[in-house]
Design a protein that fits this description.
By secondary structure, this protein is mostly helical. About 45% of the residues lie in helices and about 0% in strands. It has a single domain (about 1-120), classed as P1 Nuclease, CATH 1.10.575. The radius of gyration is 15 Å and the shape is globular. The N and C termini lie close together (about 10 Å).
């Protein structure tokens, strides 16, 4: 899949957004990215590495568990209560960050971070 796959899917998804949603998203994408969601679609893959420091945060190591679901090798099905303990997996992250996106009490940094996580995990 990699960065190219994430980028292509994000670009296709963004082309399907209505203008109101696209305009809202533009507020939370850094200006140097020209409002292009495909530029942040691999963000969570990048921040898992300990030597990165996006948005001036010192360490994103805590977010590694959010990147996947932990389905046992012997299982052929996903069971959230077993495979996403305490919502510490991609499903829990999407629930958390999508909720933050609609929370009017979140500040700019939290909303921006939530949009980055949501975009990366969806695409």
């Amino acid at each position: 899949w990699g960065p190219i796959g994430h980028s292509i899917v994000a670009r296709l998804a963004q082309s399907q957004l209505d203008s109101s949603t696209n305009n809202w998203i533009q507020n939370y994408i850094p200006q140097n990215l020209s409002g292009n969601l495909s530029e942040i679609a691999s963000w969570t893959d990048i921040i898992r590495n300990p030597n990165t420091n996006p948005l001036n945060y010192k360490n994103w190591k805590w977010s590694r568990k959010l990147h996947i679901a932990y389905i046992p090798d012997w299982s052929c099905e996903y069971i959230s209560t077993r495979d996403c303990l305490n919502n510490r997996c991609v499903e829990g992250a999407l629930k958390n960050y999508s909720q933050r996106l609609i929370d009017n009490n979140c500040d700019f940094v939290r909303t921006t971070t939530s949009s980055f996580f949501s975009c990366s995990f969806c695409w």
